[in-house]
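Obj.: predict assembly geometry.
Materials: sequence records (below).
Method: joint structure prediction, all chains together.
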Amino acid sequence: MSDNQNLLARKSAATPRGVGVMAPFFVARASNAELWDVEGRRFIDFAGGIAVLNTGHCHPKVCAAVRAQLDAFTHSCYQVVPYESYIALAERLNALTPGSHAKKTAFFSTGAEAVENAVKIARAATGRSAVIAFSGGFHGRTMMGMALTGKVAPYKTGFGPFPAEVYHAPFPNALHGVGVEPALKALHELFKADVDPQRVAAIIVEPVQGEGGFYVAPPEFMRALRGLCDEHGIVLIADEIQTGFARTGRWFAMDHYDVLPDLMTLAKSLAGGYPLSAVTGRAELMDAPNPGGLGGTYAGNPLAIAAAHAVLDVIAEEGLNARANALGERLKARLHELETTIPQMADIRGPGAMVAVEFIDPASGRPDADFAKAVQARALARGLILLSCGTYGNVLRFLFPLTIGDETFAEGLAILESALRG
Ligand code: PLZ
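Observations (raw structure tokens):
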């Protein structure tokens, strides 16, 4: 048996099938946008550990920062003995996130935990309980994360009951027949039929849906959400866990809009592969929970905080916002060329390098998940790691490191093209 086969057998004997795994091989090492498996095979990584590696695998500056921290101390628990780097990172995020109002930041470990805490903060600040989320949205695998997530299979199947007072409204999606007007009408219906807006603590929205299919919230929709939140005293939470840190060609996806969120959830590329998440938001909201109400043993772990400082430096020093736009343009241009000959390619979209291509069966007009799966499998067999997404599973998304070199990127695009052609 090969090393990979051997590990696959051990994996299925020792770990539950519920932890679904895409690749049938195991990573041995990785660098920037390349990854090698335990048998020495090389892959180009257009998945970036699901949007975590905007600064690439093992960026030398991130590794150096973590190494230095490793030699100083690795854990004190911030709530027991605090450290300066946590405060300094909060200061940086308060300044970097959209809006010049007074902000504060609290750190956690996972994206789901940031979402949980954003809801806690909104509830404490408003004294209300209800939360509105959107169909197709993804917010994590904890109980509240699942409740907020707007997709049943596979995330919620068999795991209920979920926390009460979570409501879903349709996310505008022109390609699938939901315009902004009907989406807003549904929200108003919700306020009439299901929940008094005066009981709503928060509306949580991804400015670009990630797992849901890289659908972009139209500016007028975001503006209308802001208006509703202002009218009814509701906290607007932007979940930027997948969109943050230069992916969309700006520091945050909300930088593309002319309205501000009250709270933001951040994770993934914040710390380049180390478990760190954050809630950043209006100082007065962030201060609503009582002392001791927020935290976690590992929340704001010093190694992850050190990595995050380096990540922010790298994004600025290497001009990764501009790079995201340049790479995204190159990818979109290539996809548009192919679109003319591959009839399944129905939509190419996304800001900056948050790009996706959606497949529709030209005969039936229905989402074509099989085509997406086949392209993904062919790409993988030819050495390119791709991720699918979408409510219908018929979207391929591109989450390559923004630090990827031109040659590796070109090589990845060539494999992508061959996989799309068959
Ligand atoms: N909010 C917008 O994208 C995580 C999920 C992978 P955690 N997305 C990847 C999987 O299959 O579990 C995500 C997200 C948005 C919240 C989360 C949750 O972040 O760090 O996975 O908890």
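Conclusions so far: Residues 50, 110-112, 115, 138-141, 206, 210-211, 239, 241-242, 267 surround PLZ (CB under 6 Å).
To do: check interface contacts against the pulldown list.
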